[in-house]
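Repro:
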Amino acid sequence: MRRAAAALLAAALLTGCAPSVDPIERLGRKAAQRVRPHGPAAEQPYRRWGLAAPLAPAPKPPARPRLPGTSGPGLPPVVNHIRTSDKVVFLTYDDGAEKDPRFVDMVRELRLPVSMFLTDRVVGPGYGHFARLLSVGADLQNHTLDHPSLRGLPYAGQRAEICGQRDKLRSRFGVRPRLFRPPYGAYDATTLRAAADCDVSAVVLWRASMTETGLHFTRGRDLHPGDILLVASDDDDLNDLTLRERTTRLLRQIQGRGLTVGRLEDYF
């Protein structure tokens, strides 16, 4: 680089004029231009993940969330929708079977608040992946140890499934999950008693889930503020789509309705 700078200086002196920019500085600028990012690496994060515009920031959640009516004295509420005027919906993912490392990048770059309801039997040796998701802002919640249909099981069995996964998440990640989703959305009064005894704040179902043809609504026909959405589960029919592709499809629809994504845990 010193030889090149000396050559530039000599050429300037021969032509009878001093360079207006120091040769070393000029070479430094050229080097910076060569390494300046361009193409996909220089794109805004939202474009890299297939969105036409950035996600609107979620509003600050209420200091005292308006929880739905409880299922009974001392029992956690069962919710598929949050009563709120905030223009937010909530993204949830079940089981933990797919461990796409680029989904971690997506969550980080879009600052996407997602709730992962994990089953120990399905996650298996992939807990490291979910540690990375936790580190970029995802919430890790309870979806039982072994993914049984809880309805009709005795209290001891249901409590072991729910408390067991609570303890597993606490020991592995240092988190104490407050939200619980029963496998297949199946529960009974015994489930609610067991959930209460396992420190569950709410039993979380969903207002809509993704299918091949779009969102399938359990009630209504369109997205509304406060809807809880099931983006992916181990037993759905969208196994040909990655979590990134599913999420992008849904985010486009959310933006089209003038909504954004909120953090579910903030509303409990």
